[in-house]
């Protein structure tokens, strides 16, 4: 029932490593409409997901389905231009397999980006939220990517998630956001993942808000759990692409088109923030601050 993740991710990591010159130390995942980040890599070497052994395929508009290697501010990086979601029908272990492939290729730090609906009433469309914590709703029902036999080669059976999102990297993002003049639209908050693909009802948005979530989406937390399980450092950003609707009189309707359009409008700043951060990270898990 559970495929041997170590052998499939190991085979894929080796396949990729034999085709690139420098192993990556930073792994980046591009959220919906944020794939332009991958185009900022220098000296890119790209693989289509369909050509990579054991890799799932991207099925969502705004997720190109390419794995791009290259350098960002001189650091060797790998960038997923397109991620996988529960609602695409993949088992949760398959969705997160790329995290283990990252680990086996030598990645130390993972940067996850996503598009999300804003639950916090102070948030505006276009805000960039530094993820300080998550609420893993599918996990409450037993849909956690670590369900199944634990492979000790990756990590412990019961990993701690109290420091899922690296606090030093959160501070670095705040500092660099201020340096870049982005303070007006940089926020910090809690991301809640749901299974999707339907957007939330008004009652659901109200409930999530009361539970302490600032933004709601359909990804990221699963990847963060698997990345932390195998000891990688995690940093995540949510682009608030739409307001979660909490009022029965509201005429607003979320749509994937709106999500992609907000991505287009804010992509340049988000890319600058990520590339500046990568430039300021040490590859041995220290930060130049
Ligand atoms: O991959 P992310 O989490 O950025 O994608 C979000 C959630 C859905 O896949 C989609 C909804 O518009 O965007
Ligand atoms: O409002 C949303 N809900 C869930 N996922 C999302 N991804 C972008 N916007 C949203």
TrEMBL record:
Pathway-wise, it operates in: Purine metabolism; purine nucleoside salvage
Q: Which reactions are catalysed by this chain? A: inosine + phosphate = alpha-D-ribose 1-phosphate + hypoxanthine; 2'-deoxyinosine + phosphate = 2-deoxy-alpha-D-ribose 1-phosphate + hypoxanthine; guanosine + phosphate = alpha-D-ribose 1-phosphate + guanine; 2'-deoxyguanosine + phosphate = 2-deoxy-alpha-D-ribose 1-phosphate + guanine
Query: One GO CC term of this entry?
Result: cytoplasm
* One GO term (biological process): purine ribonucleoside salvage
Print the keywords alphabetically: Glycosyltransferase, Purine salvage, Transferase
The protein's superkingdom reads Eukaryota
So what EC number does this one have?
Answer: 2.4.2.1
- Domain Nucleoside phosphorylase intervals: 26-278
EC class name: transferase
The entry's phosphate-binding residues are 32, 63, 83-85, 115, 219
Give me the residues that bind a purine D-ribonucleoside, please.
Answer: 200, 242
Query: Could you tell me one molecular function GO term of this UniProt entry?
Result: purine-nucleoside phosphorylase activity
Family classification: Belongs to the PNP/MTAP phosphorylase family.
Function of the protein: Catalyzes the phosphorolytic breakdown of the N-glycosidic bond in the beta-(deoxy)ribonucleoside molecules, with the formation of the corresponding free purine bases and pentose-1-phosphate. Preferentially acts on 6-oxopurine nucleosides including inosine and guanosine.
Question: What protein name is recorded for this chain?
Answer: Purine nucleoside phosphorylase
Identify the species of origin. Denticeps clupeoides
Print the organism lineage.
Answer: Eukaryota, Metazoa, Chordata, Craniata, Vertebrata
Designated gene of the protein: LOC114793906
């Amino acid at each position: 029932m559970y495929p041997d993740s170590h052998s499939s991710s190991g085979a894929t990591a080796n396949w990729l490593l034999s085709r690139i010159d420098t192993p990556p130390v930073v792994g980046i995942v591009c959220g919906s409409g944020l794939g332009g980040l991958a185009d900022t890599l220098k000296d890119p070497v790209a693989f289509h997901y369909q050509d990579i052994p054991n890799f799932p395929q991207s099925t969502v508009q705004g997720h190109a389905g390419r794995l791009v290697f290259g350098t960002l501010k001189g650091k060797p990086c790998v960038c997923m231009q397109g991620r996988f979601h529960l609602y695409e029908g993949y088992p949760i272990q398959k969705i997160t397999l790329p995290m283990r492939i990252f680990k086996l290729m030598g990645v130390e730090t993972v940067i996850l980006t996503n598009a999300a609906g804003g639950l916090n009433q102070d948030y505006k469309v276009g805000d960039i939220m530094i993820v300080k914590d998550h609420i893993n709703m599918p996990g409450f029902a037993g849909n956690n990517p670590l369900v199944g036999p634990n492979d000790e080669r990756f990590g412990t059976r019961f990993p701690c998630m109290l420091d899922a999102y690296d606090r030093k990297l959160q501070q670095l993002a705040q500092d660099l956001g201020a340096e870049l003049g982005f303070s007006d639209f940089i926020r910090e908050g809690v991301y809640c993942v749901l299974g999707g693909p339907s957007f939330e009802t008004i009652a659901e948005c109200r409930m999530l808000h009361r539970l302490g979530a600032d933004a709601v989406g359909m990804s990221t937390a699963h990847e963060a759990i698997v990345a932390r399980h195998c000891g990688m450092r995690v940093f995540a950003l949510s682009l608030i692409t739409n307001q979660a609707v909490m009022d029965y009189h509201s005429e607003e309707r979320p749509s994937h088109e709106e999500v992609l359009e907000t991505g287009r409008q804010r992509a340049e700043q988000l890319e600058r923030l990520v590339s500046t951060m990568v430039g300021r990270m040490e590859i041995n898990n220290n930060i130049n601050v």
